[in-house]
Amino acid sequence: MAAFVLIPGAGTDPRIYDATIEALKALGHDGLAPALPLDDADAAPSDHADAVIRALPADGEQIVVAQSLGAFAGSLVAARAPVAHLILVAPMIPRPGETAGEWWTSTGHEEAIADLLERHGPMSSWGLDAIAEVFLHDVDPDVSRDNERYQGTPGAGMFGEPWPLESWPDVP
Fold this sequence. Notes:
Shape: globular
Largest sheet: 4 strands, parallel
Structural class: alpha/beta
Radius of gyration: 16 Å
Number of strands: 4
Strand order of the largest sheet: 2-1-3-4
Mean pLDDT: 92
Order of helices and strands: EHEHEHEHHHHHH
Helix content: 25-40%
């Protein structure tokens, strides 16, 4: 039996994965979404990785699933703990020494979403309507409404820590 360890993207409480965990259990797998230090504005990806590692089961196959900004922490988990697989969902993949704040410029993100920025302003000021349009447009509106309480703005600490690895972890 595999244990799927779910790491959400920026500012999202891991409880967003409750339905996914139920579905995994129905398929005979374990699923967990460890609590992250979301209330600590200084918490960095390494702090999120540490929280995930502390929550890992002692035995069995570990499969880390990291979404968006969660790839910064997920890759650190895969480098520091016995992980069978690392699955990335719409990931922000860092270069060695790159911060999540630098990632936006390095990837040309601002140019890619120029029309959205013109309509909604800077991402840091987006309200629930903009987030719903951009990130949740293909999510059932009832599910989206039920999960609004799990959405928030990530602390500055998530964007200032340089990714500490010299290369991507050797994990499939």
